[in-house]
């Protein structure tokens, strides 16, 4: 492993043996081995690790570094990354706080929408923060554009992005309703026309049979996060869950939220498979991955800023549990143009938190439905999308708005599509309700994060790093 460490303005390449023998302040009197002959341009590892000057590397950090660097190196070699390519850079951030997300249901508040920030310069690198929940060690991993492109291309060439072998379902089983078939907006009990849902009426219904684990080809791959719920997600690999960044990052307190995941859940005690959150370092840990752009905009804020929504995506890698081997997993897919993205039928099913504003059976829902705790809910209509914004370095808009009815707890759930009518693929992630009481002409009250080429490349990288 090649480690780059800033020392008095110089960078030295140090061997893995130096780290093992007690370099960087570890126990032992052996001096670090500095090999000036190391040719960084032709290093087979293609991964550079940067540690703060004077850092003491203990056994836990050494193990995390070896695991992360080894997985990145193996992926780089699979992708054919050679000495002429820009390396993947791993920068140690320190030990972060990890809280038990099962102890309480997260309730996120969102800041008022503001005008879009000024466009950022294009960056041909993708920066993500990853954390080992058992040790709390955080690292910023910078993926060069070449790595993202090759990982995405390899996943597509090998049909990895099309899901598990049992990925097929039939769109007709969703009984889709055209979203243009919208009833008139009624007046609420207070005489005011409310637009908290896409047309002022909650058209969600309970999916499957309550208190019976989901069997539907799509629903069994959907995930409820937390013992008491509070967020949603989707399996995109045997141990890979895509969700919203704010579901796994307590941004206000700058902490990570460790949560048990339940696949195919329906009610308190019925699910197909689960991956328990366990802080025990002796058990294969869960690692979280979140874009650096989310942390830089949301961390320390009381309310989640609208400017953070384009980066509101995260991936959980549950190394100790392979739920996908039990229930299967969806693929993922991206389109370059807004028109191609919008011109698709897509569906959303999530786990709303009962009692929250706009939840099924809430006070401002003058229907008679009752919210079933930890039940899976979805709109009877497929989700129309539009109003794209926040272009990335490839010119693909990260953010969009959609009209399907949701409420708190749907965060992190996917907007999935039946590719060719039968292959389940994730195309976007629910971020937040754009407005709860919206204007009369606002039929897209919700905000989502789009699967872009960059995000697809990172998911592809994680699938190949951790098969």
Protein architecture, described:
This protein has 467 residues and is an alpha+beta fold. The chain folds into 2 domains: 2-95, no CATH class; 151-465, Thrombin, subunit H (Beta Barrel), CATH 2.40.10.120. 15% of the residues lie in helices and 28% in strands. The strands form 3 sheets. The protein has a 13-stranded mixed sheet. Strands 8, 18, 19, 20, 21, 22, 23, 24 and 25 form a 9-stranded mixed sheet that branches. A 3-stranded mixed sheet has the order 5-13-12. Strand 9 and strand 10 form a beta hairpin. The longest helix has 20 residues, at 59-78.
Quick overview of this protein structure:
The protein has 467 residues and is an alpha+beta fold. The protein is built from 8 helices and 25 strands.
List its salient traits:
467 residues, alpha+beta, Thrombin, subunit H, 2 domains, 13-stranded mixed beta sheet, nine-stranded mixed beta sheet, 25 strands, disordered N terminus
Structural class: alpha+beta
Residues in helix, %: 10-25%
How many domain regions?
2
CATH architecture of the largest domain: Beta Barrel
Unreliable segments (pLDDT under 50, ≥5 consecutive)? 1-44, 188-195, 363-367
Beta-strand residue percentage: 25-35%
Instruction: Identify the CATH class of the largest domain.
Output: Mainly Beta
Work out the helix count: 8
- CATH fold-type name of the largest domain: Thrombin, subunit H
Radius of gyration: 23 Å
Shape: globular
User: Biggest sheet, in brief?
Assistant: 13 strands, mixed
């Amino acid at each position: 492993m090649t480690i780059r460490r800033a020392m008095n303005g110089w960078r030295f390449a140090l061997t893995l043996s130096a780290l093992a023998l007690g370099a960087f302040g570890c126990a032992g009197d052996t001096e670090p081995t500095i090999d000036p002959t190391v040719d960084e341009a032709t290093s087979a590892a293609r991964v550079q690790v940067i540690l703060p000057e004077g850092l003491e590397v203990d056994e836990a950090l050494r193990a995390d570094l070896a695991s992360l660097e080894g997985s990145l190196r193996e992926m780089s070699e699979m992708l054919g990354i050679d000495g002429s390519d820009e390396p993947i850079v791993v920068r140690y951030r320190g030990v972060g706080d990890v809280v038990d997300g099962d102890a309480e249901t997260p309730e996120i508040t969102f800041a008022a929408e503001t005008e879009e920030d000024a466009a950022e310069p294009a960056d041909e690198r993708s920066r993500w923060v990853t954390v080992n929940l058992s040790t709390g060690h955080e690292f910023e991993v910078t993926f060069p554009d070449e790595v993202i492109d090759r990982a995405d291309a390899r996943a597509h060439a090998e049909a990895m992005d099309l899901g598990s072998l049992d990925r097929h379902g039939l769109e007709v089983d969703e009984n889709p309703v055209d979203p243009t078939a919208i009833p008139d907006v009624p007046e609420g009990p207070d005489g005011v026309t409310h637009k908290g849902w896409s047309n002022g009426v909650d058209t969600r219904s309970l999916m499957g049979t309550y208190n019976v684990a989901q069997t539907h080809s799509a629903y069994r791959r959907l995930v409820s996060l937390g013992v008491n719920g509070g967020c949603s997600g989707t399996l995109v690999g045997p141990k890979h869950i895509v969700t919203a960044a704010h579901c796994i990052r307590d941004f206000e307190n700058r902490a990570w939220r460790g949560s048990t995941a339940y696949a195919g859940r329906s009610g308190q005690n019925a699910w197909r498979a689960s991956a328990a959150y366990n802080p025990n370092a002796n058990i294969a840990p869960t690692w979280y991955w979140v874009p650096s752009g989310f942390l830089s905009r949301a961390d320390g804020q009381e309310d989640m800023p609208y400017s953070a929504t384009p980066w509101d995506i995260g991936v959980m890698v549950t190394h100790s549990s392979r739920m996908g081997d039990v229930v299967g997993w969806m693929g993922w897919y991206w389109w370059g143009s807004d028109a191609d993205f919008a011109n698709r039928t897509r569906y959303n099913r999530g786990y709303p938190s009962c009692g929250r504003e706009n939840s099924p059976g809430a006070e401002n829902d003058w229907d008679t439905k009752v919210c079933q705790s930890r039940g899976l809910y979805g709109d009877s209509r497929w989700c129309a999308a539009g109003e794209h914004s926040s272009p990335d370095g490839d010119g693909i808009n990260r953010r969009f708005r959609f009209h399907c009815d949701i409420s708190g707890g749907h965060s992190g759930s996917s907007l999935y599509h039946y590719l060719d009518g039968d292959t389940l693929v994730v195309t976007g992630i629910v971020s937040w309700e754009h407005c709860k009481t919206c204007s009369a002409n606002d039929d897209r009250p919700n905000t989502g994060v789009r699967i872009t080429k960059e995000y697809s490349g990172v998911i592809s990288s994680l699938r190949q790093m951790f098969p």
